[in-house]
Specification:
This protein has 213 residues and is of the alpha/beta class. The chain starts with a helix and ends in a 6-residue tail after the last helix. Helices cover 38% and strands 20% of the residues. Helix 2 packs across helix 3. It contains six helices and eight strands; from the N terminus they run αβααββαβββαββα.
Length: 213
């Protein structure tokens, strides 16, 4: 088995599932025909029993899983994990993501991901459906309580030499925008990483704010 084959399988185990297009972006972007090359390799890995797949009508392509899959192929959470993976892929377009942990346990709550990116540390919340105002407040309240407890200062999610609370980035559909100034840490709500980078660039131009800690 080639090293790339092993890397594809390991990545599927990490993200739980990926679409053909996502795998093409991650492993075949440098080739002349990323989708064709991805299809060829994925067909072989599936034939040999290393991975499994399901047809996804929404994406009009296969969604791939490790074999055996860590979630049911018809699980309602498939789309959620695909979005978590897409956030990572989109972040990589702008800078190397040095760390991306899926669903890490933080105190008594579990963010969708924790990342080290663009010189900062981030908790990622990826949402396919619209948050209600109450749902958004409840989710962020857990971060507020952890912040107030000061337990975060001793956690593996901060740089112990420079303990700064990680930024919270909410990515997905927007119903009602939150008031970021209400929170004692930096929080942003955006529809996509592309939208976040446009917003961040504008802030840098206007007031010199930086994404770095």
């Amino acid at each position: 088995m080639r090293e790339r084959d092993k890397a594809i399988i390991e990545t599927l185990e990490k993200f739980k599932c990926l679409t053909r297009d996502q795998i093409a972006q991650l492993f075949f972007r440098h080739t002349k025909k990323p989708h064709t090359n991805a299809n060829f390799v994925l067909k072989r890995l599936r034939r040999d029993g290393y991975i499994t797949a399901r047809t996804d009508k929404a994406f009009q392509q296969y969604v791939y899983f490790p074999n055996p899959p860590s979630i049911k192929k018809n699980s309602q959470k498939v789309d959620h994990y695909l979005l978590i993976a897409q956030v990572y892929i989109d972040m990589m377009k702008y800078d190397t993501v040095k760390q991306y942990d899926i669903e890490p346990i933080v105190d008594d709550f579990i963010p969708d991901a924790f990342a080290r990116w663009k010189g900062s540390r981030w908790f990622i919340e990826a949402q396919n459906s619209l948050y209600t105002s109450k749902q958004l407040e409840q989710k962020l309240q857990k971060y507020v309580e952890w912040y107030k407890s000061d337990e975060w200062r001793k956690s593996p999610f901060v740089n112990q030499n420079k303990p700064i609370f990680p930024h919270v980035l909410i990515v997905g559909k927007i119903n009602k925008k939150l008031n970021a100034s209400e929170y004692p840490f930096r929080v942003a709500q955006v529809e996509s990483i592309d939208a976040f980078m446009k917003m961040a660039q504008k802030q840098i131009q206007v007031n010199g704010m930086s994404l770095k800690e």
